[in-house]
Amino acid sequence: MRDIADQLGPKMYGRTEPPRGLPALKLPRNIPAQEIPHYLGWLNYWSAAAAMAIGFPDPARDAELLMRAHRTPSGGWVVQLTDAPLDLDDPAHLDALKRAYERFPVIGGRDSP
Asked: Where are the residues of the annotated region Disordered (predicted)?
């Protein structure tokens, strides 16, 4: 998805701000730990280590995500952000993506220097 690719930076040319009010994400090589997810999508797989690194699940804060999440036999999680495939032209889907980024500031290396 072009919008997600446009979140990555820094950029040498072109748009410097991510589209649609989405947060800027660090390039994967600049994320401090390999278990931290690089970005969010409609369907996300987080290993047990990744889930621990981002603080998922927190039953008090993740009730909406847990309704569409499944635990894997290895302790990881498959988390679906919306019922239908992510469509960023749908305001409800864009809002769900923004809420997930707010909930998990470590994703994309956003909370590290």
From this structure: 1-21
Report the distance separating Cα 83 and Cα 80, nearest Å. Answer: 7
Kindly report the pTM of this predicted structure. 0.89
Alpha helices in 1-113, H assignment, sequence order? 2-5, 48-54, 63-66, 91-103
**Sign of the alpha-carbon dihedral angle for 61, 29, 34, 77:** positive
Q: Is the dihedral of CA 82, 19, 21, 27 positive or negative?
A: positive
- 57 vs 63: CA distance, rounded Å: 9
Q: What percent of the chain has pLDDT over 70?
A: 89
Q: In 10 A of CB 66, how many CB atoms?
A: 16
Residue 11: what residue type? K
Instruction: Please give the single-letter amino acid code of residue 109.
Output: G
Q: Which tens digit of pLDDT belongs to each residue from 24-56?
A: 999 899 998 999 999 999 999 999 999 999 999
